[in-house]
Design goal:
The protein is an alpha+beta fold. The chain has two helices and three strands, in the order H-H-E-E-E. It has one domain.
Length: 113
């Protein structure tokens, strides 16, 4: 009887550890996705500052949108122009791995050229 009780307690502990491990992996994946989005946003900002006269639309925007789509699940990138074209906001959205499609992730970064 004591052995059965000990095995039950051990089984509950193992199930708890497995659950915690699964959650940890999901959070790690979401953190990785945020890092990719942040890295992409910084890359876009650097390129915008390097050529401040270049338009926000066109082939460069398509290239950045392709990078977002390739590196993030259902990744989308958009640029919102502000301050007469001297600045704006980069918006990167994707379907977060933690919580599924009903939990979209959004990263917004302001930029000035």
């Amino acid at each position: 009887m004591e052995v059965l009780a000990a095995l039950s307690i051990l089984a509950i502990g193992v199930i708890g550890l497995a659950s915690a491990q699964g959650r940890s992996l999901a959070v790690s994946q979401l953190t990785h996705e945020h890092l990719l989005a942040h890295s992409l946003a910084l890359s876009v900002i650097e390129q915008l500052r390097a050529s401040p006269q270049a338009p926000l639309q066109g082939p460069r925007l398509s290239e950045w949108q392709d990078r977002a789509a390739q590196s993030l699940p259902q990744g989308e990138l958009s640029l919102e122009s502000r301050h007469g074209g001297r600045g704006g906001q980069i918006v990167i959205q994707w379907s977060g791995s933690l919580g599924g499609p009903e939990a979209p992730q959004v990263l917004r970064r302001d930029f000035y050229r």
